[in-house]
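Re: [ENG-882] Designed sequences occasionally contain unexpected residues at chain ends

Forwarding the minimal case from QA. Structure tokens:
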């Protein structure tokens, strides 16, 4: 197998996550550290994906998202049970989101200096510890635990994306990204219901202990699983200085796509109960809404997993954004849950393309020597989109009622589509397109 050992620029890489799929390691000149060597696109090894390290990564990601998903519907109930109100529920959401956003660039630096695997495991340990801390007395303990949970989530999520970037073969990056995202979708579909079942059977201790146990299992898998631990690593230098080096400018474009997509996605994920209330529809009619939407998303991702790598990145991205605009257009006419579900299913089809291709573009454009910074910057779009999108659309609904938020989402997605098709952004995608085209030969 022909490998390129020269692209590390003489510095050792902290990324020694086992990558028998796409690379082997080389001895760096003059020291005993090891650095990654990326397989050429023509290498037979370059098309393998479903090897043990990647399968273990998928299992670990499913566990991590399950750890968080189990407590998501439980914590608001706990706050209200302790005498809190809706404002305190919102404050608890901020206690998770703010640390997850603020600490993420520093997590990227940690990955680039200490390695993916150790940071990944640290995040999993934090997820497990936070689950046990939820058992502490009263609201102050829960707020403290949720803040730790947010910081651990930043480490787990950023390192997970970095591991994906290391394991994804050049010619199957979109497929690898799609299956990776599918694990989070499955966990988010199943875990909240499991949490509510445990709450009914065992009280608050049930879902909290389950969340802690799942985090611990993820940490154990990262310790004994088929992952290669880092060898000695030296910090990677950034010519732009420490603070500027925390943000990878090459990842800003895919981060922006992720930010916009997640922000409008909240209209189909967070706000359907509000839609039902505004239309005088019983919330019970939403019983099948989320499972059907989730099922369509899973089916679409499985169908698209091999197609997305055969098409230019730009074409897939344009398709996803166009489907999002069509979905929002259908939603503007919605008068029932069935109408909203139709729009949500169209959006789910778009979701099989847009987040997946944004992840693939982020990997394509990432400097292998600053992979942590790139993935930290890229993954910022998701918590920012969830937090800011939820706030903006909530205020829009309060001030203008429906269908104003859907019309606003059409404007936002349309603006992004125009920008993506602009010559400047298309040139910015040239790096990703070139790497993808070369890997497909």
């Amino acid at each position: 197998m022909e490998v390129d050992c020269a692209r590390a620029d003489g510095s050792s890489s902290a990324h020694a996550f086992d990558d028998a799929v796409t690379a082997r390691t080389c001895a760096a000149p003059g020291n005993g550290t090891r650095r990654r060597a990326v397989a050429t696109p023509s290498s037979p090894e370059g098309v393998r994906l479903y090897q043990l390290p990647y399968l273990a990564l998928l299992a670990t990601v499913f566990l991590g998202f399950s750890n968080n998903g189990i407590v998501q519907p439980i914590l608001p109930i706990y706050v209200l049970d302790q005498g809190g109100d809706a404002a305190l529920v919102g404050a608890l959401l901020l206690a998770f989101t703010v640390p997850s956003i603020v600490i993420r660039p520093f997590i990227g630096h940690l990955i680039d200096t200490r390695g993916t695997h150790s940071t990944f495991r640290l995040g999993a340990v934090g997820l497990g510890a936070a689950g046990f801390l939820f058992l502490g007395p009263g609201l102050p303990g829960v707020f403290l635990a949720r803040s730790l949970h947010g910081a651990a989530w930043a480490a787990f999520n950023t390192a997970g994306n970095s591991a994906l970037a290391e394991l994804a073969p050049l010619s199957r990056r979109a497929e690898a990204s799609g299956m990776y995202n599918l694990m989070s979708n499955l966990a988010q579909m199943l875990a909240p219901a499991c949490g509510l079942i445990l709450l009914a059977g065992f009280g608050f201790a049930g879902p909290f202990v389950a969340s802690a146990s799942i985090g611990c299992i993820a940490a154990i898998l990262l310790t004994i699983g088929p992952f290669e631990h880092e060898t000695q690593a030296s910090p990677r230098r950034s010519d732009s200085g420490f603070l500027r080096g925390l943000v990878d400018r090459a990842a800003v474009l895919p981060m922006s796509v992720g930010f916009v997509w997640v922000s409008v996605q909240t209209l189909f994920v967070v706000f359907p109960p509000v839609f039902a209330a505004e239309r005088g529809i019983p919330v019970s009619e939403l019983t099948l809404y989320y499972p059907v939407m989730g099922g369509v998303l899973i089916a679409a991702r499985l169908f698209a997993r091999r197609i997305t790598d055969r098409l230019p990145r730009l074409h897939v991205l344009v398709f996803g954004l166009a489907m999002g605009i069509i979905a929002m257009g259908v939603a503007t006419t919605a008068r029932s849950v069935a109408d909203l579900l139709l729009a949500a299913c169209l959006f789910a089809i778009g979701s099989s393309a847009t987040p997946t291709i944004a992840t693939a573009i982020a990997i394509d454009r990432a400097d292998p020597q600053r992979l942590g910074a790139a993935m930290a910057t890229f993954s910022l779009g998701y918590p920012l989109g969830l937090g800011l999108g939820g706030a903006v659309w909530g205020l829009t609904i309060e001030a203008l009622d429906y269908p104003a938020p859907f019309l606003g989402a059409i404007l936002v997605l349309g603006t992004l589509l125009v920008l993506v098709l602009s010559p400047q952004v298309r040139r910015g995608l040239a790096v990703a397109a070139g790497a993808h085209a070369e890997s497909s030969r």
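QA comment: On inspection the terminal residues look reasonable. The longest helix spans residues 138-167. Proposing we downgrade this to a documentation issue.
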